[in-house]
Amino acid sequence: MPKKLTIRDIAQLAGVSKSTVSRVLNTKQDVDPVTRERILQIIEEQTFVLDMSASKLAGGRSRLIGSLVPPLAWPLMPEIMRGISDVVAQSPYELILYSITKEQVHHDKEQHDVISRILHSNLASGLLAVFPGPSTPYLTELYEKGFPVVIIDDRGEPTSVPWVSADNRVGAHAATRYLLQMGHHRIAYIQGSPEYRVSQERYLGYCDALHEAGLAPDPALVQQGDFTPMSGRAIADYFCTMVDRPTAIFASNDQVAYDVLTTADKHGLRVPEDLSVVGFDDIPPSAYLRPPLTTVRQPFYEMGKQAAELLLSLLEVSSSGAHALNKLSKSLSVRLVTDLVVRDSCSPPHDNKLQRKSSGLLDSVAKAQQ
Amino acid sequence: MPKKLTIRDIAQLAGVSKSTVSRVLNTKQDVDPVTRERILQIIEEQTFVLDMSASKLAGGRSRLIGSLVPPLAWPLMPEIMRGISDVVAQSPYELILYSITKEQVHHDKEQHDVISRILHSNLASGLLAVFPGPSTPYLTELYEKGFPVVIIDDRGEPTSVPWVSADNRVGAHAATRYLLQMGHHRIAYIQGSPEYRVSQERYLGYCDALHEAGLAPDPALVQQGDFTPMSGRAIADYFCTMVDRPTAIFASNDQVAYDVLTTADKHGLRVPEDLSVVGFDDIPPSAYLRPPLTTVRQPFYEMGKQAAELLLSLLEVSSSGAHALNKLSKSLSVRLVTDLVVRDSCSPPHDNKLQRKSSGLLDSVAKAQQ
DNA sequence: CTGTTAGCGCGTTCAT
DNA sequence: ATGAACGCGCTAACAG
After folding, report:
1. Which of the four pLDDT bands, split at 50, 70 and 90, describes residue A362?
2. DSSP-assigned letter for residue A194
3. Which residue among A51, A82, A121 places its CB closest to the CB of B122?
4. Peptide bond into A272 cis (omega under 30)
5. What is the pLDDT of residues A201-226, one digit of tens each?
6. Interface contact B361, partner A, CB < 8 A
7. Do B101 and A81 touch (CB under 8 A)?
């Protein structure tokens, strides 16, 4: 175990002062390209790495990013984390995981506590918040005080905090339009939790498509769900046993769509022959169900990736420059497009079955937009 | 934004010196209970938190745990992480996530790099490694040099490093015995990747049960797979088209069992009527398949939890005491029991169908042991 | 362009 | 039982 080298050691090896080494390590200007090269060489040979604690203490920056995330068991989380990790791994930063438990997800006091912990421990120099939910206001405050924050998908009101999200409205529009074009008229909709902004957006997209087709949303066909597994069963029961049963159900996320599939089966309804089903998210199991689920894919990996890149660039600015940061805030939102993934859970309704048939290929993907 | 308080500030408020505050913060002896209480009081009021960087630099511990994990998209990871997070969140420690990409998983050089990065950055004071695979030797070296390490499930040879794992052999035994008791004689087995120790263990469990029933493993019924989705299809094809087709297939993980289900369907074989299928892991989708999959549940949450607790206790020891650590190493392995989760993917074979029928309840769980 | 000087906030001797 | 002084490894002025 070669004793841990310090910046001084490599300064000696290079015949310069610690400051110079520090300069090259922090890619400052004003260093002779030759000595810089030599120093880098030595650093490489010795596999020297800056002591982050010392660096943080002396300078203030920490090369540590905090990530405030909902339970990783949420099926969309792994891909988001992969996007984040991939970016962070390529950077000089490391990622601290502050994981919100199922129980804390809806309690803003507890989330506030977690955030305080993040701030007080004074480790992270930036924060990536995934579905921060009730704590969005705190995060906003934080951000406006100059602490770099990026939100992935939000809840509640818009905020000045940079954020990235998929275009839920357009996605829901595409899914609904797909059903309409297939000949469906009675398309039921299962709402997501009302606290989430994405729920409203998806609902609006559903309405958009209906209006476009000259239809008005039928209140009887719109029921309030809450995104969680099992929660859709009662609603699906209701739809399956209606006198004038809908010919298609658009569930506002895949997990609820699974409930629809299960429930339809229970009632002896075949999907897609008797009932078409569309989900939202395209989480991994959706491709493996029977029938494979037609759904709107959210680019989770990309969302994580872009959020991390955004945060990294904020960090860049706040370290080098000054408050030029605030000037950018207008353009600091990213909306990613969704894709309609056509699988086998939809077909034209019985009374109107001359339209196109959905592809039977598991993996066929159709772009939702143009 | 109240300016960050330092240990000195609260020393002043308490009318004592920084040293004393430091002592109570680190729960040292030799502090007057009264002043200790007063200081704690003030710390509480001010919601003061130690600056971890400074603390680490000055020679203290870092309250940071590194976690070296495979891609979170591995279906068993979220639960493991939940176990880890729950424990860490209750402790004064934070978790740094070092995520291995799909590509790095089998390249020990890259993993070595990641580990070096962990060590050199000098942040983490302990390491939790999940399925470290090829880097087990490095971790062993590390551990033997006194750096706290805990491994969750290993690969390759046994090591002195503390580790936790499920009892794969007993689990596989239970699954196979279940099939045997149901009347199956020709039970095929799809192996996992040979590099993983768990693959061998499960295979041994399979053999144990066979021997117990007076049968010998039939080489034609044991095929080498590799745990990944899709990888089982060719093997399942092979089994489904054999002249003397097996009446049951035991897949060494759930993902491969899904392939068996898909393939059986392709060949027009009904599960469980024509073919019984058992998996291993009990990852979330398994309960929602049609038919719901009978499988051996690994206690992933518990594995993460116990590993984190183990590491925390190592950290405790290495901070307070000395090398009493090594004396414990004998008992520092944890083997958790697995459960056979009986769902609907198994039934007695055609030619022998008088035995018990598997439960139809989705969630019915039977203890594998006693 | 580069070296020198001061701390950053805390743990740890060593006194007292 | 408690305080004073020193230094952890590094960055940030300030000189040159």
Report:
1. very low
2. T
3. A51
4. yes
5. 999 999 999 999 999 999 999 999 99
6. no
7. no
